[in-house]
Automatic annotation (TrEMBL):
Pfam families: Pribosyltran. PANTHER family: BIFUNCTIONAL PROTEIN PYRR. InterPro entries: PRTase-like, PRTase_dom, PyrR_bifunctional. It comes from Reichenbachiella carrageenanivorans. It comes from the Bacteria. The keyword Cytoplasm does not apply. This is Bifunctional pyr operon transcriptional regulator/uracil phosphoribosyltransferase PyrR. Keywords: Glycosyltransferase, Transferase.
Length: 182
């Protein structure tokens, strides 16, 4: 197994700031925009984005957590059932601009599931997707992120490991792990 560091704590902070400024360019003061972090790991990225946005624009930003467990296309195919996480959407998304946020974009199936899950909370005017890491060339579903922290070319034997302090890690590190036999 080989590990390659994609982002350390400093680079992650810079990346989060850049993503926030891109969001501000497109959503100004967020009057009609809400953030939805995908459970489980996307909520940590979403919380950081929210905190940085509020620091810059000096306004509260609406943030919710969306669990997609029961909307996954592999939900009933697993030997062990998935444990659901909390869904917390304390606002109406009807006619809002929604920014879905997740840590890694891989096959696109999580984004599709999130789109299905959002239907329970209304019909948004627009949906955008922010991914901290975009694993290029790996889509099963034609999905693209509107905002990308870092794009990485990967093969099937590789995976992206996101380690954040919110998960109990000592420091933020994002790794590309290669499990291929060499």
């Amino acid at each position: 197994m080989q590990k390659r560091l994609l982002l350390n704590s400093q680079h992650l902070s810079i990346t989060i700031s850049r993503l926030c400024y891109q969001l501000i360019e497109n959503h100004n003061q967020f009057e009609n925009t809400v953030l939805l972090g995908l459970q489980p790991k996307g909520i940590y990225v979403a919380e950081r984005i929210k905190a940085k946005l509020e620091e810059v624009i000096k306004k509260p930003i609406s943030l919710g957590y969306l669990d997609i467990t029961f909307y996954r296309d592999d939900f009933r195919r697993r030997e062990e059932p998935l444990a659901p996480n909390e869904t917390k959407v304390p606002f109406i998304i009807e006619d809002k601009h929604v920014v879905l946020i997740d840590d890694v974009l891989y096959t696109g199936r999580s984004v599709k599931s999130a789109m299905d899950a959002m239907g329970a909370f209304g019909r948004p005017a627009k949906v955008e997707f922010l991914a901290l890491i975009d694993r290029a060339y790996s889509r099963d579903i034609p999905v693209e992120a509107t905002y990308i922290g870092k794009q990485v070319n990967t093969v099937l034997s590789q995976k992206v490991l996101v380690e954040l302090t919110e998960q109990g890690k000592k420091e933020d590190k994002i790794w590309l792990i290669d499990n291929s036999k060499k």
